[in-house]
Design brief:
The chain has helices at residues 2-8, 15-30, 33-43, 77-82, 126-133, 156-167, 192-207, 225-237, 273-286, 302-311, 320-325, 329-344, and strands spanning 53-55, 58-60, 64-66, 88-93, 106-109, 114-117, 141-145, 173-177, 215-219, 242-245, 266-269, 293-296, 315-318. The chain is of the alpha/beta class. It contains twelve helices and 13 strands. Bound molecules: flavin mononucleotide (FMN).
Length: 357
């Protein structure tokens, strides 16, 4: 039903407008206990202790979380939790509110099961996000840290630290986002010289808080394996808790068929899957499993989750898969993962992490 509606109705309307309507509807549904109960009743997955995952000192009911960018300001967290995601990444959040790039800036590539976005960090700003997170649901929450567009790279650390400090009480995990392609020069923060200062500064800010919380690093899929190895070495040196691999890509695989493939911005969804998985595998191999990995890119179903775990991910996230599969996405994907585990005789997900070739 959702797929039919998506193809024939939603697909003809502006993608960002629909996203706004969906987010506001979810926020409204999540505001009442009846709304949350109905969402849980119809859409949440059936849980089983064999699906549980431990990472960064936190427990997750299963490996599938919601990737950054879907709920940038933390408006609809109660509903998203009721839909069954095991963790949610809010953001990316900037210190000051900003509108992002001019519209249109979000495009569906239906034939390719993909999206292209060049949103450029629209954010309500950290003060409003803190108010939104004051009543957060009880599941692990990651917060993605960003910088304002006008902030020069030389002052980026101040922006990242400001958001970290302001939202420290509200998140369980913090993510340094230096990999979005739509903020000019942001990806240069992945260069060793910038990144070392950024990680050191953020860890210094965390050390000044009452309790230590993990800091993760989200990387681009367009880095070479040599660059990724240098970033992993730096991450280990600066006691980063894990790597999120990956953000959207600037590449345009020749296989793309949709007219919107010509739009500029970051490509996500099915065409990103294999590259993102190869990066997960590479990180797991070069770090010998010492850095927990959150695998993201092209996850649409249980077998995509299985593949990312076997490549070396401990957790998995999705954004585009949720858009294409609809409200029952988590229930379906986790049900499929459970079936694969049963068929393969796996009783503990730790047994398969990094075990695929
Ligand atoms: C519309 C849109 C907005 C996004 N915004 C952010 C963001 O603010 N911060 C971030 O780190 N990643 C952002 N992402 C990237 C996703 O978190 C994810 O890394 C990427 O889309 C690949 O996963 P997917 O194939 O499941 O979509 C965004 C993706 C999309 C499609």
């Amino acid at each position: 039903m959702y797929r039919f509606l998506y193809r024939h109705l939603l697909a003809r309307t502006d993608a960002e407008w629909i996203h706004g309507v969906a987010l506001r509807s979810l926020a409204a549904a999540g505001a009442s206990s009846l709304g949350r109960a109905l969402l849980r009743r119809f859409f949440a997955p059936h849980l089983d202790s064999v699906l549980c995952v431990e990472a960064f000192g936190l427990s997750f009911a299963h490996p599938l979380g919601l990737a950054s960018g879907f709920d940038k300001d933390g408006c609809a967290l109660s509903s998203l939790a009721a839909l069954g995601f095991s963790f949610i990444e809010v953001g990316t959040v900037t210190p000051q509110p900003q509108a992002g790039n001019s519209k249109p800036r979000l495009f569906r590539l239906l034939e390719d099961r993909a999206l292209i976005n060049r949103l450029g960090f629209p954010s309500a700003g950290m003060a409003q996000v803190a108010r939104n997170l004051a009543r957060r649901p009880a599941l692990p929450l990651a917060i993605s840290l960003g910088k304002n567009k006008e902030t020069p790279l030389s002052a980026a650390l101040n922006d990242y630290c400001a958001v970290l400090e302001h939202l420290y009480a509200y998140g369980d995990v913090f993510v340094v986002n230096v990999s979005s392609p739509n903020t000019p020069d942001l990806r240069r923060l992945q260069d060793e010289a910038y990144l070392a200062d950024l990680l050191a500064g953020l860890q210094h800010t965390i050390a000044a808080q009452r309790a230590a919380k993990p800091l993760l690093l989200k990387i681009a899929p367009d880095l070479s394996f040599a660059e990724i190895e240098r970033i992993c070495a730096l991450a280990l040196q600066h006691k980063v808790g894990g790597i999120i691999a990956t953000n959207t890509t600037l590449e345009r695989p020749p296989s793309l068929r949709s007219a919107a493939a010509r739009e500029s911005g970051g490509l996500s969804g099915a065409p990103l899957r294999d590259r993102a998985t190869a990066i997960v595998r590479h990180i797991h191999s070069v770090t010998e499993g010492k850095l927990p990995i959150v695998g993201v890119g092209g996850v649409f179903n249980g077998s995509d989750i299985w593949e990312k775990l076997r490549a070396g991910a401990t957790l998995v996230q999705a954004y585009t898969g949720f858009i294409y599969e609809g409200l029952a996405f988590v229930r379906r994907a986790i049900g499929e993962l459970r079936s694969i585990m049963a068929a393969e005789g796996v009783r503990d997900l730790r047994d398969i992490i990094g075990k695929g070739r």
